[in-house]
Design a protein that fits this description.
This protein has 113 residues and is an all-beta fold. It has one domain: Rieske [2Fe-2S] iron-sulphur domain (Rieske Iron-sulfur Protein, 3-layer Sandwich), CATH 2.102.10.10. 0% of the residues lie in helices and 30% in strands. The strands form two sheets. The protein has a four-stranded antiparallel β-sheet, with no helix packed on it. Strands 4-5-6-7 form a four-stranded antiparallel β-sheet, with no helix packed on it. The C terminus is likely disordered. It binds FE2/S2 (inorganic) cluster (FES).
């Protein structure tokens, strides 16, 4: 395991402009002090924990391919729509990115009503 990731980027609970999130890309951010990545496809935004469920790699160093985020360390794949693993590396594995919270543009950020 690696050291816990530190929050970086904007606080999503304060809101960001849709244009701040690259189309088919990621924005490194945090919610309530927890590091997250926000992925945008058109008007849809998905937010998931930034630490890979395998060994905790920072997913913001990975790549977005379609609706997947691919981990930079062992190429684990997460579906941003569900947070579920779409492909796993060998060894210990959590099938879901911890704290994954898919969201849509215009909906409240995770943790807010
Ligand atoms: S740390 Fe992400 S796949 Fe291993």
């Amino acid at each position: 395991m690696s050291e816990p990731l530190q929050p970086s980027g904007p606080d999503l609970s304060a809101g960001v402009e849709l244009s701040d999130i690259p189309e088919n890309g990621m924005l490194t951010a945090h919610v309530g002090g927890e590091p997250v990545v926000a992925v945008r496809h058109g008007q849809e935004v998905f937010v998931m924990a930034a630490a890979c469920g395998h060994y905790g790699a920072p997913l913001w160093d990975g790549v977005v391919v379609g609706h997947e985020v691919r981990c930079p360390w062992h190429h684990g794949r997460f579906d941003v729509r569900t947070g579920e693993a779409a492909g796993s590396p060998p060894g210990p594995w959590s099938a879901r990115a911890p704290g994954c919270a898919p969201a849509s543009a215009g909906s409240p950020p995770p943790g807010r009503a």
